[in-house]
Amino acid sequence: MLNKQDISDRILVQEHFAQEHLPSEMDQAEIDRYKARIKALLKEKDACLVAHYYTDAIVQEIAEETGGCISDSLEMARFGTIRPEQTLVVAGVKFMGETAKILNPEKRILMPTLEATCSLDIGCPIEEFSAFCDQHPDHEVVVYANTSAAVKARADWVVTSSIALKVAEHLEEQGKKIIWAPDKHLGEYVQKQTGIEMLMWDGSCIVHEEFKAKGILELKSVYPDAAVLVHPESPDAVVQIADAVGSTTQLIKAAAELPNETFIVATDRGIFYKMQQAAPGKTFIEAPTGGSGATCRSCAHCPWMAMNGLQNIVSALETGEGEVLVDEALITDARRPLQRMLDFSASLNK
Ligand code: SF4
């Protein structure tokens, strides 16, 4: 059984901030120099910084300080289209840079690193996926945003976790059969919530798949008043014990709105930066990824998101390296389901 001492070194968001804000290889003076350089370069290059909630706090901080955006992949996609700057620096993973390019083909899209990818994207190669779709021509193809431009181009719809349920219900109302790819856990969640049967691709996120229901329940016994916040990329056993399930933006909202003072959070710990802003004074605890026999490949932080840092943001802006290029034919075909998602999302907010 866990006790407070056992877990004290992993729980406090303040500790997380201390680690994230002051990376061991940089002192505060160096961080300040990098930040000043990024601010100057963004102006000089007519650029803005778009960062995902899972990037390190220092990256989110500079996005915020320069009038950029920190958000989930849906909002990142939308934000890029409404900004006047001709260069977007996307701090996130490859599919986010590609999405920005598809929606803004006339703009220059830079990424701090082109190496940052996603296990869902890797696990859904276009050849196999296209062959799978060809076997079921009577199905509407719905793919998660966490896919390559080529997979999007093969799809009828793109979704993010924030509107996955609504899109599935919308297609069900139209009598459509659905292929769902690539995240089987998100798909299972949608199936359970809506009762809609879907043909599922067998992909998963290496970060969320590591969360363990048993470990969370043990943590709950130490913090009985804590609410459990879960991203639906997590396994069903973890979703089952959640007090709130949702996209990153929805989980931040839940942290602010629920009356609890303590939260066990089953998603990437990069989200703590915004959760702390939305719910100051509350305590956020990383959901356990270990447990006996478990292999922690991610430890609640995406290894690819962690590749974004101040140094490579400067380097991308200075050199223009890390530019995201997408084949023109793919842009045309992938834009259709992406735009459908944005239009659908806008119609929900009317
Ligand atoms: S956290 Fe998971 S879904 Fe998000 S980019 Fe990393 S591997 Fe992909």
TrEMBL record:
PANTHER family: QUINOLINATE SYNTHASE, CHLOROPLASTIC, QUINOLINATE SYNTHETASE A. This is Quinolinate synthase. GO terms for molecular function: 4 iron, 4 sulfur cluster binding; metal ion binding; quinolinate synthetase A activity. Pathway: Cofactor biosynthesis; NAD(+) biosynthesis; quinolinate from iminoaspartate: step 1/1. Its cofactor is [4Fe-4S] cluster. GO terms for biological process: 'de novo' NAD+ biosynthetic process from L-aspartate. Keywords: 4Fe-4S, Cytoplasm, Iron, Iron-sulfur, Metal-binding, Pyridine nucleotide biosynthesis, Transferase. The keyword Transferase applies. GO terms for cellular component: cytosol. Signal peptide: none annotated. InterPro entries: NadA (IPR003473), NadA_sf (IPR036094). Its EC number is 2.5.1.72. The keyword Iron-sulfur applies. The gene is nadA.
